[in-house]
Amino acid sequence: MSMEREIKLALPASQVQAARQWFAARAGKDGRAIRLVNIYFDTPQLTLASSKSALRLRQTPDGWLQTFKTVGTATNGLHSRHEWEMPVAGAKLEIDAMLSACDEPAAADALKQAAPALIGLFSTNFTRTLWLLDTDGAQIEAAVDQGDVLADVDGETRRAPISEIELELKSGDEAALHTLAAELGKRIAGLAPDDISKAQRGYRLRAG
Question: Which of 44, 65, 97, 199 is deepest in the core (most CB within 10 A)?
Answer without folding.
Answer: 199
